[in-house]
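User: My instructor asked us to take a sequence, write out its structure as tokens, and then describe one feature of it. I'm not sure where to start. Here is the sequence I was given:
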Amino acid sequence: MTGRPEVLFPLFADITTLDGVGPKTAQNLEHIGITKPRDLLMTLPLSGVDRHLRGSIREVVAPATLTIEVTVQDHIPPKQRGRPYRVNVTDVDTAFQLVFFHARGDYLQRQLPTGQKRIVSGKLELFDGIAQMVHPDYMVPVAEADDIPAYEPIYPLTAGVTQRLMWKATRDALTHAADLPEWIDPSLKTQEGWPDWRDALVAAHTPPASTALAPHDPARARLAYDELFAHQMTLALARAQVRRKPGRPSQGDGTLREKVLKALPYAPTGAQTRSVEEIAQDLGSPHRMNRLLQGDVGSGKTFVALMALLTVVEAGGQGVMMAPTEILARQHLEGLRPLAEAAGVVLELLTGRDKGAERQAKLQALAQGDIQILAGTHAVFQKDVVFADLRLAVIDEQHRFGVAQRMELGAKGQAVDVLVMTATPIPRSLSLAQYGDMDVSVLDEKPPGRTPVQTALVSTDRMDEVIAKLRHAVEEGRQAYWVCPLVEESEVSDMTAAEERFKRLRAAFGDDVVGLVHGQMPPADKDAAMARFVAGDTKVLVATTVIEVGVNVPNASIMLIERAESFGLAQLHQLRGRVGRGAAASTCLLMYQAPLTETGRRRLEILRETEDGFRISEEDLAMRGAGDVIGTAQSGLPRFRIADLERQTSLMQLAQSDARKLLHDDPGLESDRGQAARTLLWLMEQDKAIRLLSIG
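Assistant: Let's start with the prediction itself. The structure tokens for your sequence are:
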């Protein structure tokens, strides 16, 4: 199939081919992303108005919208300018008035001839005890009663586009939609009781009642599923594409891993063991690995990553572990070093700081294969960095790393396996939308040796009390983080807030006790301030959220977050994860500015109740919506027109397994259902998938 199937042509025609849509309206519709009939059909009504015909206005309690047959009695034109024009009418039971402002009398005489019957529909209100309908939405002769929908769908609008126009245009667009061959698995369709695609469209645009507007209504659920299925087909094709590229099987003999297990102070958790096995299997297979290791704060991802790296070293290859910042790269190095030494493996660090002869020596050792595991920042991408035999790249914190960089990394080795680690637990539905092309391992248990963190809420007006308690803790030799609020959007004001707090705490504790890090500092100063805190020279570190990811200071056992209500749940959870890393009992104080909103309080209470990052992320999604949880701008989350990620998680899972199964059974999409799925990909504008198919 070289181009868009002909059956879809009418849906991709110019929007001005639709009834009532001229060039001006077309421009207005473009503001809400509607440029062709297909877009219009995928814009479903948000609500509806009941317009079924009633006998008398006495059947409803004003104010209410109603549709009624009336007899026109007489016209009362206004006595002076600016006053309304009134028309007295009666239904079978009682009299009321139709009211018009700025109306032309001759037009109303034609529309509502005295003594004639008309059907009017609009909002009935009481004004000084008199029932009135101001500017009825519809006034038609009885013969044209069918022009008024019994239940009128209400669409999302933009300036210059009326409901009436949307109604007319969508009716016309529906006539352009042909019956398409079925792409949904027949048994699934029967089980869910879903209608055919075209019937589902018609039903969704002509809801019989408000119940038909719910996401689980069969017609809407079907259309949402189509969207998710097309998205998951694209990801599954991308995944198949990666898997089709030959990988290099790296089968380790387990000797190095055995040494590490012996050196570990405690046994790995079940989740760690399971993930290590899943990764080893991928590494040993002829396909390329593209796996996401998703673990909550402190679930022991580093250990799993090391076991993966050792597997390729056992097989005679090299591994690289990439971090987004130098601080984190150093930390990886420190975390891995004792265990790598136990295994007798050479581990080195390469960052932008390495210069001159030292850098040359490292590069040479790397090219000769003397360095077996390299930890580093993006500096490992530079042209002159050459590996003897790079087989595995472990990338920390995916969202700071684009697909393009993963590709560059692939170019460093013949067929590099990729393991991405993220400490941000993402709800299942979002991780499927974002990482559906990857296989996922989840660490959902805490290793022994981590103390639970006590979380408390305290209002900012108790600041002095908090500072006094903190002074006491510091005198006992404890260390604390003090995270400053997120001010507006500008980093400059974040910096000011941090500097103000730093001054105040320095006055309270003495100069050399308090350190400061914020996003505007030169990297070297930031590293130095962190290093002093890690060494225990400073006891309190005042920081903006730069410390959110990965910093490990086991002696720090207090986390103070000022104006906690201004942070996202996931962010607060990440920050709290910076403490509770040592043996000391740890505390996290969430300071809030009273009064809190209902949701603000709920959010902080969830943190007090649980340390389970996955549960927190599900709550976060329910409260904030998908775009906010990942920060849609940079998340690469697809925008769905119909599907609702918050309420239709199970549909997303269904779509993923179905898409993978279809491609497994029919990799070229040649079967009848495969061909139908191709039509769906064209319909959903999944050009990327279509390109993958044509390459495939």
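For the description part of your assignment, you could build on this observation: Residues 552 and 578 are 7 Å apart (CA to CA). Try explaining in your own words what that tells you about the chain.
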